[in-house]
Amino acid sequence: xxxxxxxxxxxxxxxxxxxxxxxxxxxxxxxxxxxxxxxxxxxxxxxxxxxxxxxxxxxxxxxxxxxxxxxxxxxxxxxxxxxxxxxxxxxxxxxxxxxxxxxxxxxxxxxxxxxxxxxxxxxxxxxxxxxxxxxxxxxxxxxxxxxxxxxxxxxxxxxxxxxxxxxxxxxxxxxxxxxxxxxxxxxxxxxxxxxxxxxxxxxxxxxxxxxxxxxxxxxxxxxxxxxxxxxxxxxxxxxxxxxxxxxxxxxxxxxxxxxxxxxxxxxxxxxxxxxxxxxxxxxxxxxxxxxxxxxxxxxxxxxxxxxxxxxxxxxxxxxxxxxxxxxxxxxxxxxxxxxxxxxxxxxxxxxxxxxxxxxxxxxxxxxxxxxxxxxxxx
Length: 378
Prior knowledge:
Butyryl-Coa Dehydrogenase, subunit A, domain 1; 4-stranded antiparallel sheet; Butyryl-CoA Dehydrogenase, subunit A, domain 3; 52% helix; 3 domains; Butyryl-CoA Dehydrogenase, subunit A, domain 2; 10 strands
């Protein structure tokens, strides 16, 4: 489709102009530089529904949602160039979609157009020290106090921690730990009194850390969706963006394959190019085959998601296969580079670190197997 082809071309321009420029910056400066590049190209608008100030999806999806096909096309191309570009792009959607589907009209009007313009940085706060795959174990608690709520608790592994202007926070408003019906989502401004951030490093660098809430006052107008409806909003958000994780994995895998082919064609050992050795030629053939299969699975999952049909099995299948597959492809690329493959600063070393987290976040590989098995067997 022409709209998607143009998106990919725009993302390629952004990546080519930005990749080297942010490579040696610290995490915060690199994140802000990546966001600025995405903003200038108008790409962030694709993370917000058209109805709330986002991009015109041109019949790819309804006006009140975001196009999964567009997200996948953009993430695949951005990831080929830079993991930082990719994560700063998608976090704008993850950290604002709960507002699009659950926020009051006034909050939507205040926040979402600014996110689409790249003027606000968003964050999505679900994970806790004892609540990862099992969101029913969320312990952060929100207690009603007149026409406001008081939040207390701690979130961890929160992307954009410390640079975000707001957090969409899943908190417990009733019941005990383990009760999925007692969770509610809230919009929490980063500058609210009692919000404290502690940043830490992960192997694929980007702004991430703990976010603690100590007697944080949140007006009821910042509640997203009905009381007790937070898990549904969280799942709807994850379901919308999960196929794009697989697309990101494909972008990393495609870059690894490209780098491997260049290496094998240019590097000589024992008097001939590495590309002349049958075992390495077979590697390239299998890498290409696996990548194409992953791309087809992502295409199916994205199309079904945009069309509004039953996509759970297709999404789980795509996320599971593409992320596991990308890990294998990137590992082979490192092997093809030998010692240079583990030298800090090389492209394949960077990709190898970036790709690992994809098998964990937004539903681990094990969770995707559970989802797929349930869809197949009941």
